[in-house]
Amino acid sequence: MRVRIIEPTKKVENKKLKVCAYARVSTDNTKQGESLENQITYYKRLITSNPEYDFVGIFADKGITGTTENRPEFKRMLDLCREKKIDVIITKSISRFARNTLDTLNYVRTLKELGIGVLFEKENINTLDSKGEVLLTILSSLAQDESRSISENSTWGIRRKFEQGKVIVNHKKFLGYDKDEDGNLVINEKQAKIVKRIYKDFLNGKGANRIAKELEEERIQNWNGTTKWYVSSIRKMLTNEKYKGDAILQKTYTVDFLTKKRVENKGEVPMYYVEESHPAIIDKEMWETV
Fold first, then answer.
1. Best exposed site among 24, 25, 54, 183 by fewest CB in 10 Å?
2. How many domains does the chain have?
3. Sign of the dihedral through C-alpha 78, 80, 82, 84
4. 218 and 135 together in one domain
5. Global pTM?
6. In DSSP terms, which residues pair with 262 in a beta bridge?
7. Cβ-Cβ contacts under 8 Å for 7 (sequence gap 6 or more)
8. CA 97 and chain centroid, separation
9. Are 24 and 66 in contact (CB under 8 A)?
10. Residues 248, 173: one domain?
11. DSSP-derived secondary structure letter, 268
């Protein structure tokens, strides 16, 4: 028997890989913003300096947690992957890609079926490698445990502050107050006049519907700068103890550290009532009467 080798007639072209990077920071503060800009600069230099890569772009989500699906740039990147416009994704670590083990593996497997690899720099994992998925499963589980631990520590810290009477309020959605340099609630005099008017109108016999209608007719601005007033918002303002200078803390709590879902506290966890925690806009007698 004789074997004759038939040499290939077509040359295999070494096509450049279409490469992008995904970057994310979980908060929207200045320091994290600088971190994101540094990541973008780093990955652009890394990809463009490699002669085997074609630079597709940098996809970056800012101030969005990895435990939710609200990541527009991440979704846009996946859409391009489905359109075969990306071959490789480079990212810093598993925790930047997703902290949920199931989500991480689902994304990786979906991309793998499309022939697209993900390179996790910190963990030194290439998902197209035979060992990649085994390592990824183990490390993703560790990342998820870390996310749970961070969430529990954060919750513990917040509750310790509550026990000490330290009020944590989102003043941006709270008509009548601002915060000073130390984070303490201070009265916004312009907005406080609107709050006082609402209370006085109610005591004079006007219902929440009529109060909301009159505020809209006079085009008086709400906390968000719009002139739309909701009846439900008026009712909440009339029963909000913070306007008399007190605060009930932990009215809601987080039930799932991955989805960050919050629900009303109906006695499942402690609440804390802090008297005279900040300056009052409405005196206690008027508030009790309302």
1. 183
2. 2
3. negative
4. no
5. 0.47
6. 254
7. none
8. 14
9. yes
10. yes
11. S
CATH value at residue 138? 3.40.50.1390
Measured CA to CA, the distance from residue 289 to residue 229 in angstroms comes to: 23
Torsion of Cα atoms, 228 then 239 then 174 then 258, to 10° = -100
Neighbours of 202 (CB within 10 A): 20
Q: Which two tokens stand for residue 290?
A: 């309302």
In terms of pLDDT, which residue wins out, 140 or 239?
239
Cα angle 186, 30, 67 (rounded to 5 degrees) comes to: 95
| List of residues 6+ apart from 217 with CB closer than 8 A | none
Region class of 228: left (phi > 0), else alpha (psi between -120 and 50), else beta: beta
Q: What token pair was written down for 42?
A: 């780093």
Quote the domain boundaries for residue 267: 165-289
Residue 105: phi and psi, rounded to 5, are -65, -40
DSSP conformational letter for 245: T
**Residue owning tokens 């002139």:** 227
Name the amino acid, one letter, at 155. Answer: T
277 vs 151, residue with greater confidence:
277
Cite the beta strand spans of the chain per DSSP E. Answer: 17-25, 53-62, 88-91, 117-120, 125-126, 177-179, 185-187, 247-249, 252-256, 261-264, 272-274
- Tally the residues of the chain: 290
Around Cβ 195, how many Cβ atoms within 10 Å? Answer: 20
CA distances to 92, 120, 140, 174, 269 from 135, in Å: 16, 11, 8, 47, 38
Distance (Å, rounded) from C-alpha 191 to C-alpha 208? 18
Residue 64 lies in a domain: yes
